[in-house]
C-alpha cells in the first residue's frame, strides 16, 4: 500500500507525508499492552485525528508479547490487533516498533535471557527473528501499517561500551539483516526501518547508516543530549541540530524524523513552540520525509520508568487533560504548509560535504586516533556555516560523487586513503572547487593544496587567526598537527601565536583552499557570541568568494536558511526559514534582483522573484 520513491512516501501514486506522534497511553504509559484500556486508546486516536494528524508510532515491549522464549501472550497479541483496528478507524497509520533499547529512560531487554548478547548470540537472533515474524503475521492484514520499525535506539541494548564501534558493527549488520528478512518473508511489501539515536550519526555506536539493511532510516534527535556545545533551545545551534542529522543520514538512505520534542519542565512552552516551527520546516529542507513528535500527551502514570524519570512525563504536545500546548499549533501549521511546500521544485544541491571512508571504517586499523565524534563536530559546524551563507548543500558518502558538485567541503580531513586523495585531486584538476581543513597529522593531500610539511607540533591551545582582515578566535583542541609551508600555494591568512597559515592553490582548472587545523571543531565551545558567529560566517563567505564559487543567492542576515526553488508556475522563488526567535530583516539578492524582507520569529516564508525588485 505504501512505497518509497525518490526518498518520499507514496500511497498509491500520491505523495504522503507522515505527521503525528509517538504514542503511549497517558494513563498506562509503557504498561499499555498488559494494562489494557481500549477506551483510553480510542479517545486518544479520535483526538489525534481531530487535530489533523495521520500517523502514530507504537512501542511493542518484547517481554509483554513473549513472556518467555517461544511462549506468546494470546491476550497481548489480540491487543495489538485491536489497536491497529482502532487506529484504522480514525485513519491513522501505524509504525510499530519491535524491540526497545531505550524509551523514556527505561530499557526492555529480552525475556528470560538475561546476560545473553542479543546481537552476537545466534540463538538470540533466531529468537528475535521468530518474534518479528509472529508480530508481522498479526499486522499484515491491516492496511494502515506504514512500516515496521525493528528497533528503537537499540544501541542501548549493547552489553557494554566495548561492544560499540568498528568490529562489532558486523554483528549488528547480521542481526538487522535477520530481523528485516523475517519481516519481509512474512510480508514482502512491508517497508522496514530502524529508529537510531544520535550516536549513530555523531559517534560510531555500531549501528552504522551504511550497514543497516532497511528501506529507510529513522533518526531521533534532542539537542539536550547532543555532544556539541548547544546553548539553549532558542539558539541556531539547537535548531540546526536535527536538520544536520537528517541531511547527514540522507547520504545513505531516505530518512524520517521519528522522534523530536522537548521537556516542558526544562523550557517555556513558547520556546518549545518556536523550536517546533524551525525544526520541522528546516528538516524538510534537509531531506526528512516524515515527522513524529515525542509524544502525544503528558503522562499521568508513575509506573516504570516514569517513577525514576519524571521529566519524561512532560514531553506531550497536549497536557494530560488534553489542553493543547503551543507546540501542537506549530506542528499543525507545518503540516498544513506541507501541501504547498511540496509543490515547490527545489534546486539540486551544488555544494557537497564529503563523509570520508574513515568515518565508518571497515576495519579497526583504518580508524585514526581522531574519533568519529570529532569529525562529526566539524561536519556539524561546516554545515551550519554553509547554511548561514545561503548555500544549498548536502552530505555525500562516495568520493566518486564529488563530480556532481561545483564545490566540495571536507572539514576535519584526516586519514584519507589513496583512492580518496587521487579522486579529489582529479576533481580539482578538472575544475572542481575544494575546501579542506586538517583533522590531524595523517595527510597525503599536499599536492592538492600546494604545500609541504615543515614539522609536527603539539597544538593544545586556541588563540586567534588573522584572515580576511578579521580575527577568528579559536577554541582549544589538543593533538598533533603539521606546520606547512608553501609549495606552489598562496598564503591567505596566519595565526601569529600558533604559526598557522591558510593556503589557496590552483591546480589544473580548479582550486583548493586549505586550513591546516580543524578550524570548525574549534568553534565548539560554550561561549560563541553573536559577533563571533558573524565573523565565522564571514570567514566561510570569503572562502566561497576566494575559490570562485558563483552563488545563486546572497543575504546579509546569517540567521536565515534559504533554498532556491521554482513554484507551480515555474517562477523562481526562495523558501526561507528564520532560525532566530526574533524578527529578522534582510536584503536578499536572487535572479539579478534585490528584495528587502522581514522574517517573523522562527517562521518560514516563500518569496517570489518574478516581479519588480526593491532596491
In short:
With 615 residues, the chain is α/β, with parallel strands linked by helices. It is built from 14 helices and 29 strands.
SSE-based structural type: alpha/beta
| Overall body shape | globular
> What's the mean pLDDT score?
90
Range of strand content: 25-35%
How far apart are the first and last residues' alpha carbons, in Å?
51 Å
List the topology elements.
Blueprint: E1 2-5, E2 8-11, E3 14-16, E4 19-23, H1 38-50, E5 55-59, H2 62-65, H3 74-89, E6 93-97, H4 122-139, E7 148-152, H5 169-186, E8 192-196, H6 199-202, E9 216-220, H7 236-239, H8 241-250, E10 255-260, H9 269-285, E11 288-293, H10 326-341, E12 345-346, E13 351-354, H11 372-388, E14 393-396, E15 407-413, H12 418-429, E16 433-438, H13 446-449, E17 451-459, E18 463-467, E19 470-474, E20 479-486, E21 490-495, E22 500-507, E23 510-515, H14 530-546, E24 553-555, E25 560-566, E26 572-578, E27 584-590, E28 593-599, E29 604-608
Parallel strand pairs: 4-5, 4-11, 5-6, 7-8, 8-9, 9-10, 10-11, 13-14, 13-15, 15-16, 16-23
Antiparallel strand pairs: 1-2, 2-3, 12-25, 17-20, 18-19, 21-22, 22-23, 24-27, 25-26, 26-29, 27-28
Helix pairs in contact: 1-3, 4-5, 8-9, 9-10
